[in-house]
Amino acid sequence: FGGIDVVVHAAGIMILSTVAELNFDDFDRMHRTNVRGTFVVDQQAARRVRRGGALINFSTSVKKLAFPTYAAYAATKGAVDAITLVLAKELRGRDITVNAVAPGPTATDLFLDGKDEATVENLSKLAPLERLGTPVDIAEAVAFLAGPARWVNGQVIYVNGGVI
């Protein structure tokens, strides 16, 4: 259709460990995927998205929840937030919005992997809505940022059912 209008960068990995015990190879792998991956996709998007377009990155609500074992993952997503906020300003005058979606506990393979039923049940009760988010919940926020939300720019939108 003549160009790129929207880029949604959702690729990421999550390796959980305490700070004291995290293997540096795992830390580096997560950093390469979550931070460098975002930087590369955003760089290419900045070069190619046309006027009126949108770039949406994925962050996480766990940055504010500060759960034990999530420090390295949250740190990578803090970097994603920084990239998002700076790029929004760097694209001044181009009519391209740059935002990040920060999901809370959401029933995806990435979130559910390695968690027992009791843990998932406890996490589902954190939000006042008393359930895990669904991929559709997150997709609705992405669609909002990709379409009608033309005055939302340089923001990290927490999509977490009111957890924080």
* Amino- and carboxy-terminal Cα gap: 40 Å
Q: Can you name the CATH architecture?
A: 3-Layer(aba) Sandwich
Average residue pLDDT? 96
Could you name the ranges where pLDDT drops below 50 across 5 or more consecutive residues? none
The CATH homologous superfamily corresponds to: NAD(P)-binding Rossmann-like Domain
Helical stretch tally: 6
Radius of gyration: 16 Å
Helical residue percent band: 40-55%
Q: What is the top-level CATH class?
A: Alpha Beta
Q: How would you describe the shape? A: globular
Class derived from helix and strand content: alpha/beta
Quickly count the domains. Answer: 1
- Main beta sheet strand tally, sense and closure: 4 strands, parallel
Protein architecture, described:
This protein has 164 residues and is of the alpha/beta class. The protein has one domain: NAD(P)-binding Rossmann-like Domain (Rossmann fold). Helices cover 45% and strands 16% of the residues. It is built from six helices and four strands, in the order E-H-E-H-H-E-H-H-H-E. It has a four-stranded parallel beta sheet, sandwiched between helices. Helix 1 links the parallel strand 1 and strand 2.
Which key terms come to mind for this protein?
45% helix; four-stranded parallel beta sheet; Rossmann fold; 164 residues; 6 helices; alpha/beta; 4 strands
Q: Strands, helices and their partners?
A:
Blueprint: E1 4-9, H1 24-48, E2 49-58, H2 62-65, H3 71-90, E3 97-103, H4 109-112, H5 117-124, H6 135-146, E4 156-159
Parallel strand pairs: 1-2, 2-3, 3-4
Helix pairs in contact: 1-3
